[in-house]
Model the fold of this input.
Amino acid sequence: MLIHRLKVSGLLSFGLKGIDLSMRKLNVLIGPNGSGKSNLLEVINLIREAPSPLHSIAGPILEGGVISEWLWKEGAKGDGAPVNAQLSCTLAASKEDEFYQHELSFSNMGSMPSIGYEQIEITKPGQTKPQKVYFMCDFGASLSSGPGKRARKLEANEINPNASILAQVRDPGRYKVLQYLQDSYSKIQMYLDWSFGPHASLRKPGKTDERSDVLGRSGQNLALVAAAMSGKVKKQVLKAMQALYADIRDIHVRPVAGGSLQLYLEEANEVEIPASRLSDGTLRYLSLLIILLDAKPPPLIVIEEPEM
Done:
């Protein structure tokens, strides 16, 4: 489990009081439309993109419009300026008896998100004084490579305020905590706005040069991931499929024209049905099984509306 606790305020529909969620191995969000379920997923996507060297947190925000649309407006200051967004994560650390605390605050500056405060700490149960790994405010920053090590000082003009420090410092041999967070955040898998219609990516043959270790967000590499399943995982997937569709006998992946791979389900009468002809429900269920029965799952999997 990656995220143990998540605090959010001043962002999207999370107001000044915000939310403080303790998270477990399985977390199910249930609520009416407008209750903030999708907004929480947007927050997790911000975390996921924080280490991206191309856009960091600015990427998801600008994809959805402008920064002002992400900041809480009700209860804003008297001059009309929105409050700062606050985000805090307590994360599983590389050592079992430790946690990493990652906090940041950002606001609107020239239509871009501007980080005014960011901090990464190592905490232990019962510890009164956490060890600071990184601390940044308006006046500059300090970055430590470990306990007892002299902190590196960074001037304000050395830091890009539009990006997390995770997107700016890449030195795995020296800054192991940053490297751990960079790797863990980047491995978060999110499946949002799924499409299972006739022209969905999941139904198309997969190109052989795509990754085969995890199902991509569009699902177009479904055939490659199915082909790479171990015998044990394949048996688990088939058993779960047969619990709902008793006639299914096997899953095959075969080459098709153009050098691509197509997924087929074999029924009891030895008829093979390609992914392009599977029902929406069958294709969705198969995709969920392949995601959830992964022998080496990502540190966090987020699935929007898995029941649809």
